[in-house]
Amino acid sequence: MKIVLQFILLIFSAYALGQPVNYIDDGRNVERATDGVISSSKPFVEVFFASEDEIFQPPYTISYAKSDGTVVNGSTSSDSWIVKLGDTGISYLQVVDANGVAKTFCIEHTRSMWPWVMGGAVFLLVLVIIMLLVKLRRYLRQSHAKNLLERASEKHTKKYECSTVLFADIQGFTKIAEHMNPDQLVDELDRYFIFFDELVERFGVEKIKTIGDAYMCAGGVPETDSANPIEVALVGLGMINYVKERRAIDSGFWNIRVGLNTGPVISGNLGYKKKVFDIWGDSVNTASRMESSSEPGEVNVSDNTYQKIRDYFDCEHRGRMPVKYKGEIDMYFVKRLKPEYAEPGSIYKPNEALKLKMQILKSADLEDDIVKTFMKNTNQNVYNRFKMMLTRMELLARAERLSDSEYLSCRIAMILSFAQIEFSREAKVDSPVINSRLEKMKLSPEQMETIMKTVYRIVQNNDPENLIEEVIHDARYEYLGRRDLGAMLTSWFEAESEKHKHLSRKDWMNEQKSKLEGLHYFTDTARRLVEVNGDSQRDIIDMIAE
Question: Cα torsion for 395, 399, 404, 410, to the nearest 10°?
Answer without folding.
Answer: -50
